[in-house]
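Example 315, ligand flavin-adenine dinucleotide.
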Amino acid sequence: MNERTVTIQSPTGILPVKRNEPLSRYTTFRIGGPADFLVRAATRDDVLAALAWADQHQLPVTVIGGGSNLLVGDRGIRGLVVVVRAPSTQLDDQFRIEPDGQDHALVTVPAQAPISWLGHATSAQGLAGLEWTAGLPGVVGGAVVNNAGAHGGEMADYLVSLTLLDTETFDLVQWTQAMLEPRYRMTTLKAAPRPRRWVVLEVTFRLPYGDRAELQSRVAELTRWRRVHQPTGACAGSVFTNPPGTYAGYLIEQAGLKGLQIGGVKVSERHANFFINTGTATAADVRALIAMIQEVVQQRFGIVLVPEIEQIGEE
Ligand SMILES: Cc1cc2nc3c(=O)[nH]c(=O)nc-3n(C[C@H](O)[C@H](O)[C@H](O)COP(=O)(O)OP(=O)(O)OC[C@H]3O[C@@H](n4cnc5c(N)ncnc54)[C@H](O)[C@@H]3O)c2cc1C
């Protein structure tokens, strides 16, 4: 591939392919070395065109969404990175609601939809179950892969099926919720080794009808809660999963590690399970801070903290 400008023809138009594109521009941590090639895919057609192009050029593919749960290595990612996300303004015609019995509806949304938008959009239709997504960064695809959750809810709760692309055969396949084997911040999709075979294209939830005003007020309340309780700044959410019966943030705070800094990354003063990129952090800094915190917490409490953020790419 020697051409200087590389593009992919999608039914929706021409998609520019960026070379040596810094992934720090696509992660909420603002950390990550270059992708050999990177394309943004805002529609299902764009995703299919990007994957066909990678197949044609025999490039390994990494799909990311909002990049809000990722620590990308300082040497970046080889092959093609496909960024599957779209602004909510482009999604209204892709959001399908079908009544299912008297009290429920089936809601189908594309993987590229912002997850927080989904909570707002469903509650505005008087549909309950996804209010907890209010204010959560990232998109539906990434949230399903992670089985993201908050305030007692998680993605798998009301999910009934998903449409995936099998990148080995280019077939579209339907999975049930059970095939995801959802557990705490984990699914079969997340556990699969890279390069991964499955790409999430669309997700269907079965949601009960509720009181629209109450649902919308809950969404507003949870959005406010995030604004007050969550640290601001470049981060990737909770760094560690909560060990059974306790909280990772509590253990880190009790070990006196709030504010600890290595290189450009620091344990948040507001929430000890969040690390903040002060502006110059590298993935190596974050890994060093993770290792130091794991060691101190294990010595002090005998508990091994397990990272929740996913570490991908080359160091
Ligand atoms: C401030 C902040 C607060 C957060 N709070 C929470 C919280 O309360 N609860 C929680 O669970 N998480 C939280 N997170 C983490 C994160 O927001 C969620 O895990 C989110 O759902 C990840 O979505 P994403 O689109 O950013 O996924 P990414 O980080 O881009 O990707 C996550 C995984 O999904 C894969 N992936 C993405 N899209 C697709 C696709 N279409 N097909 C196949 N694979 C795909 C990626 O390869 C990767 O393995 C927080 C993060 C931040 C920055």
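Summary: The radius of gyration is 20 Å.
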